[in-house]
């Protein structure tokens, strides 16, 4: 695996700079996904961003329903 998608928001909600996010990854080992290519990592990061945007901007019920597979 070559590409790692890392969190850019800390556990306490602070927005991290790129350097802080990388440092946090090395310190904690936390990551959002590991991928073979930059394209795969970018696609996943964009998809995750869009899902989080929908969740935090009002459509939580739909988000949770999709997350649970319609159960």
Question: Explain this structure to me?
Answer:
This protein has helices at 18-28, 38-56, 60-67; strands at 3-5, 33-35. With 71 residues, the chain is mainly α. Helix 2 (38-56) packs across helix 3 (60-67). Helix content is 54%, strand content 8%. The chain has a two-stranded antiparallel ribbon. The termini are far apart.
What is the alpha-carbon Rg in Å? 14 Å
How many alpha or pi helices? 3
Number of strands: 2
Please report the distance between the alpha carbons of the first and last residues: 33 Å
Please provide the ordered H/E string of secondary-structure elements: EHEHH
Average pLDDT for all residues? 86
**Low-confidence regions:** none
Largest sheet: 2 strands, antiparallel
Strand content: 5-15%
Lateral strand order in the biggest sheet: 1-2
Shape: globular
Helix content: 40-55%
Structural class category: mainly alpha
Question: What can be said about this structure in brief?
Answer:
With 71 residues, the protein is mainly alpha-helical. The chain has helices spanning 18-28, 38-56, 60-67, and strands at residues 3-5, 33-35. Strands 1-2 form a two-stranded antiparallel sheet.
């Amino acid at each position: 695996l070559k590409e790692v998608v890392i969190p850019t928001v800390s556990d306490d909600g602070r927005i991290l700079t790129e350097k802080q996010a990388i440092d946090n990854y090395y310190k904690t080992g936390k990551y959002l996904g590991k991928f073979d290519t930059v394209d795969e990592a970018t696609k996943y990061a964009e998809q995750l961003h869009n899902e989080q945007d929908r969740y935090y901007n009002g459509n939580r019920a739909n988000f949770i329903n999709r997350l649970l597979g319609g159960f």
